[in-house]
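protien #1 (seq + structre)
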Amino acid sequence: MSSIIDVSSVAKSFGGVIANKDISLTVKAGTITGLIGPNGSGKTTLFNSIVGYHPIDSGSIKFEGNEISKLQVQQIARRGLLRTFQQTRIYGAMDGVQNMLISLPHRKMSIFDALKTFTREDYERADHLLEFVGLYEKRMLKSGDLSFGQQKLLEFAMALMNEPTCLLLDEPTAGINPTLINGLIDRLKRANSEFGITLFVIEHNMRVIMNMAEKIYCLAHGEMLAEGTPDEIQNDQRVIDAYLGAH
């Protein structure tokens, strides 16, 4: 199985504070890979570096074999590498369908201009993906009136609208009602199996990530602490100590 993301010896500091130090990892195409670690361990910084939100200080980041560490966010997105955020980035005054349509990459214009340019296929795809995430019945509601968990599902559907090859998910279950979490996990797994989208997931909920990921990386203090299968990570004393605050 070929790799889709290759991070090699990546370092990133902010004003002298080391966020990532000598990070190397590989995400295999077609898999679900997890990234865990205590708060402040550098997980979100690494995600931001991979998708181009800030340049790395040193090292290499490759996507499908091509160096992307010098590219802009939109250039990377056009290659099929996208990310979602801990806090949702939806347009609360728009309904679900409008959010789906405006998220299309080539439609970054005012909503009024954009809505004139959408095709019937665009609307059908939006409806299909809203049904996929369980929001079809609520598609005409203002997105700001949805629950936080539903907004996260909408953001996930908006990312799928772009037909990504690989999707980076930052805390997909954070703030979601526990009764909705299993449904979200199921949809993430289906996006992986049915659409063939590679998923790279930051997750605090250990039960969730152990249930989803085939391989898990663990960061601590900005450095790679451990990597392995869910069983190996669960039983790694270094990981247990990192989470319990031992040093």
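ok now protien #2
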Amino acid sequence: MFTGRPYTMWRYAEFLPVFDEKNIVSLGEGWTPILPLKNLSAQLGIREILLKDESVNPTGSFKARGLSVAISKAKELGIEHCIIPTAGNAGGAMSAYAAKAGIRATVIMPKHTPSALKEECRMYGAELILLDGLIDACGKKAKQMAAEIGAFDMSTMKEPYRLEGKKTLGFEIAEQLNWRLPDLIIYPTGGGTGLIGMWQAFKEMQRLGWLTGKLPRMVIVQSKKCNPMIQMFENGTVPETFIPEASIAYGLSVPYPFAKDLIQQVVLESNGTAITVTEEEMEKGIEHIAVTEGLLLSPEGSATYIGLKKLIEKDYAKEDESVLLFNTGSWFKYR
């Protein structure tokens, strides 16, 4: 079906919104490996545990997918200046793709973000603005600046194209696993674009007849310090008493996700669930996966492993099932 196509996410170009291939801005993103975690499977008594390792993407995270498509479409539409609020990785990704496209980039980031993520944006030539608070404060500033200077706002789910790039996760998983999806996908969820994009891809492939079996149960994992979706599932809404804090998993430090209703819809429609992990659990998880599988995961990646352990304890994850975990970024960017 895809014989002769490049092993990047652009092998699925017909499903992406860039009309002229000369406008594609690519750094070789996508087609990241799915690794079998056999030692962990034996330890936990689960038939198959797999890891989709997004840390090998350009700029070291899954954000490359969405920003490659978004910047490509910005180029196609003649946009000259893009602005983005970020907890870290999305800012670096947009800066890199904007640099390649010749588009001006402005990145708004919390002051507490690690220095490596700040320097990355500067190295790519982006204007970097640092603020107190979390990504919601950065989002408000981005919206204000976009209106004032006429830049295009690349905020998560407030433009349509980053979602389309994240959708390629679903196509890749299906193709790499020979069109048989895992029983369970555990996803570290901040803004939720990857989760929503995957589910959209699965639905598109069902309509095409490429997938005939049942779809995976989609599980979201959040940090106890910032868990608005867990609050929403438990209370029906994010309560006014909710006080979010910064997490070591910067991608999970999204206190008020714009796409919260869509995230909830995917979880419910897939018969999935939502689970919380602590900062200490994520730290211990990083160490355990390192000595067990020889892999250094980001805190978000570790969160999916800790989430699986809790799902086994709850008898939600069964021993005869196939489980896919996600590592969304490189451990080296969190130092």
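The two ends are 41 Å apart (CA to CA).
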